[in-house]
Amino acid sequence: MKRKKMLRGPDFFTIVELMPERSYLGELELMLLLAVIHLGEEAYGVPIARELEKYRKADVAVSSVYAALERLQAKGLITSMLGDPTPERGGKAKRFFRITKEGRRQVQEMRRVLTHLWQKMPDMKMGAAEES
């Protein structure tokens, strides 16, 4: 549903239609959700960070992964549960992540949007002059 808002300028009023609010995933959020899906039962901090490193070709701090996962959980896109502690003395329990229905829906929506945008792109030749 479109909303309308009246804006007041110096000597006039303008009515504008506001686009419906949509919350698209950011690059890191999308990559994290895809990593959680791909890793399945083994989706916890370190393997998720390694999965991102593999595709980004850059180091990824596990702490930044956990911070982003907490944001995704707060948005209702993933859930988490504690596993058993590791066998060594004082071992910590791993926090495993799973994608929710809403998380899956948003991943599918991003795929649809990006596929549509890529289909509209002209062929990009490697080494061709780029606009600056």
TrEMBL record:
InterPro entries: Metal_resp_DNA-bind_regulator (IPR052509), Tscrpt_reg_PadR_N (IPR005149), WH-like_DNA-bd_sf (IPR036388), WH_DNA-bd_sf (IPR036390). Transmembrane segments: none annotated. It comes from the Bacteria. Residues 33-109 form the Transcription regulator PadR N-terminal domain. Coiled coil: none annotated. It holds the Pfam family PadR. This is PadR family transcriptional regulator. It comes from Occallatibacter riparius. The lineage of its organism: Bacteria, Pseudomonadati, Acidobacteriota, Terriglobia, Terriglobales.
